[in-house]
Design goal:
With 384 residues, this protein is an alpha/beta fold. It is built from eleven helices and 17 strands. The strands form four sheets. The protein has an eight-stranded mixed β-sheet, sandwiched between helices. It is globular. It starts with 12 loop residues before the first helix and ends with a helix. The structure holds pyridoxal-5'-phosphate.
Length: 384
């Protein structure tokens, strides 16, 4: 079976893990943690990085530090992996789901702007301006743009909208290490960006995340909150409810080795994307995710639309090509059915009904890509 997306561990991973074991530094303190978070921050062009156990907890911490509470709303795209919404729910805040564009599958910014324009009212609290949703009276505190599949939307426009409505931007850039908009890296457009190093990501620590920010105070607070909010190196004194969310040294060691090989893996992904686009253009009724001119994506997971999605999915999986459907839109999941869903044409549903992801590991060989393409072509022949 050609796997969907598996890690490529071909550098110093073993050497650095062995070093942790040989020296006994396997837990949450250790030089690899600091090194890894600095490498990720430097790569993204952010000033600070804070390593944590995974992307989900990073999104949770970013919201706490943005002051999101149970009295707030947080805007999220309706097409995302569940973790984005779970992180909102952990804070007790109420999500507002926003539909996505049919072409690039990112949050629909026209829809977002007109919704906020018609449904919010500006009010100052202690001299600070906020937007409040007229129907609930709750503050709309933050937005979590998700760089779906490593692609990006119009970040310049998004920043403009957020300034207009006083929203904090917490980028769910979990899938987007290596992606840029006008040369600026994903995760650096707002207050926080969060990267994931889960097993299926472009590089992996097995499980892991890094929160990036340009604000030293926020970075210090993120480190504090992720390490049980302990105030003294010696005494067990804690000044708030903290979390045991810190990444351990042995996983950060893998992360350091992965960051060393990342430029090469990113190049592989981009070559893979170009190959699939060239070879699958015009095959059956395949439609690719569009990429805006300003965006240089990391090409994380190759996904396309076809009316034959379910049949193709079965065919590929039966014929040695691991494939997956896309995420069920958040508004269709049982626990989020009652949330506000901003949409005119329910584009999310159409994308979900037709999208399929095909093998995209950073280490995928050209031979494997050719097999994937041939199997897809064979499938469409059976449909003629
Ligand atoms: C869009 C999105 N958000 C959040 C996450 C959560 O990251 P993690 O699995 O590291 O918790 C993921 C990936 O798994 C993701 O794809």
């Amino acid at each position: 079976m050609i796997p969907l997306s598996i890690p490529q561990l071909e550098g110093n991973e073993w050497k650095y893990v062995k070093d942790c074991i040989d020296t006994g530094w396997i837990s949450s303190a250790g030089s690899y943690v600091n090194q890894f978070e600095q490498m990720v921050a430097d790569y993204a062009g952010a000033k600070y990085g804070v390593a944590c156990m995974n992307g989900t907890v990073g999104l949770h911490i970013a919201q706490i530090l943005s002051g999101v509470t149970q009295d707030d709303h947080v805007l999220v795209p309706n097409i995302t992996f569940i973790a984005t919404l779970n992180a909102v729910k952990y804070t007790g805040a109420t999500p507002i789901l926003v539909d996505v564009n049919a072409d690039n599958w990112q949050m629909d910014l026209d829809l977002l702007d007109s919704y906020l324009n018609e449904n919010t009212i500006g009010k100052e609290i202690e001299g600070i301006p906020f937007s409040f949703l007229k129907s609930t009276g709750k503050r709309v505190k933050a937005i979590m743009p998700v760089h779906v599949l490593g692609n990006m939307g119009d970040m310049a426009r998004l920043v403009e909208i957020c300034e207009k409505y006083h929203l904090d931007i917490i980028e769910d850039s979990t899938e987007a290490l290596g992606s840029t908009f006008n040369g600026k890296h994903a995760g650096t457009f707002g207050k926080f960006g969060v990267f994931s190093f889960n097993g299926n990501k472009i590089i992996s620590t097995g499980g892991g995340g890094v929160i990036v920010t340009n604000d030293k105070d926020l970075a210090d607070k993120a480190k504090h909150l992720t390490t049980q909010a302990k105030v003294s190196a010696m005494d067990y004194i804690h000044d708030e409810i903290g979390y045991n969310y810190r990444l351990v040294n042995v996983l950060a060691a893998i992360g350091v080795a992965q960051m060393e090989t990342f430029p090469k893996l990113l190049e592989n992904k981009r070559q893979m994307d170009a190959f699939y686009r060239q070879e699958l253009e015009g095959v059956g009724d395949i439609v690719f995710q569009s990429i805006d001119e300003e965006v240089n994506p990391n090409c994380w997971l190759f996904t396309f639309k076809t009316s034959k999605m379910r049949d193709l999915l079965a065919y590929l999986n039966e014929n040695g090509v691991q494939s997956r459907p896309f995420w069920m839109p958040m508004n269709q999941l049982e626990m989020f059915k009652e949330e506000i869903y901003v949409s005119t044409e329910n584009v999310s549903s159409k994308i979900y009904d037709t999208s399929i992801s095909i093998p995209s590991s950073a280490g995928i060989t050209l031979e494997q890509q050719k097999t994937v393409v041939e199997t897809i072509k064979e499938f469409y022949k059976t449909q003629e």
